[in-house]
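so im writing up the methods section and need the cellulase record in one place, dumping it here so i stop losing it
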Amino acid sequence: MIAILVIVAGVLAILEDLKDSKKNSASHHPGPIVKKYVDALEIALQSFDVQKSGKLVNNRIAWCQVTEVAAETAAAMASASLFFKKIDSSYSNLLLEHAQQLFSFADAYRGSYSVSIPQMQNYYNSTGYEDELLWAATWLYHASRDLSCLKHVAELNGQQFADWGNPTWFSWDDKHAGTQQVLLSRANLFGAKGMPSEENLDLQMYRKTSEATMCELLPDSPTATTSRTKGGLVWVSKWNCLQHAMASAFLAVLFSDYMVTAQIATLYCHGQLYSPADLRDFGISQADYILGNNPMKMSFLVRGASIPADANTTCKDGFTCLDSINSNPNVAVRAVLGGPFLNETCIDSRNNWMQAEPTTVLSLSVSSPA
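--- predicted struct ---
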C-alpha cells in the first residue's frame, strides 16, 4: 500500500503543479522538468510519514532515486491517456506529454527506491527497476505509437532488462510478465507499422517468453508449474497470495483473446497442443477457487471491515477497530482477502493480516479476468 500511496501522491502533486501553472501562464510550459518532478517526488515521499504517524508533519525529505515509482507513474499516465483519448483529447494529450517527460526523468536518474530508502526493504522491497522501465516504455508506445519506445524495450534494453526465456510472476513488484504478454505480445501478434526488423525480432523473444509462461500456467502441460495448492490455485507467496493467481488468470484470458483475434488455433507446449479455450478455462478455475470452489468451501470475495471515515480519523484510529470484539463499524463491500496458505487453510481474523488483508492490487486483479 505504501508504494501505491507514493504513486498516487506523486501523480496528484504533478497534476496540481500543472493546474497552478496554467493559471499563471497559458503560453509557457511549467518550469524545468527535472526540478518539477523532483518536487513532486519529494512531496510523495512524505506520505511515508503519514503511514507511520497518521499526520503530515511539516518536514522536507531530500530527493533520492526512485526509478520504480517514477516509471510506474509514467505508465499510469500513458495508459490513462489511452482511456481519455476519445473522451477528452486535450486531457489525454496532457497526460501523454507528462508521461513522456516523467519516463525520461525515470530513465535518466536510475536507482531503486529500496536502495534510496532502506527502511522500505522490510515492507515493500523492490527487486529492481528494470521491469518498470520496460513497462513504462511499452505503455508509452501503445499510447503514442512512437517507435523509439519500442527501440527502448527491444534493441536498447531487451537483452539486459527483459530476462527472455525465463517466465516470471506478474505482481506489484514484477512487471515482466505484463510487459511481455499484455503489451509486447500484442504488438508482435498484430504488427506495428514501420517497425524495423531488429525490433520485430526482439518482440518475438518477448512473445516466446509469454508462450512459455502460458505453458507453465496450464495445469496438465508438460512444463506446468508446481507452484500450486492441491486444489489447483496458483500459489507463490504466503503474503497476499491471491495476487499471483488472479494476475495469472488475467494474463491467460487475455492471451487467449489475442490468439482468437489473431486466428492462432493452438499453443505448443513441449509436444502438447492447447487451445485458447484451455487458457480461458485455467483463468476461470482461479476465479472459481476464490469464489468458493476450493477444499475449504470458503469464498475470499467477502465483506471486509474498515474504519469509519471522518475529518478527525487517522491511521492510528484503525487499531481501535482492529482490537475490538464488536461488529465491524463500517463495511467495505466486495473486499478480497489475501488468500490461503499452501496447505489450504485460512484463519478469518482481523489480526491475521497475512491472509485477511484486502489490497488494491488484489482487487484490481480480481476484476480484470472478467
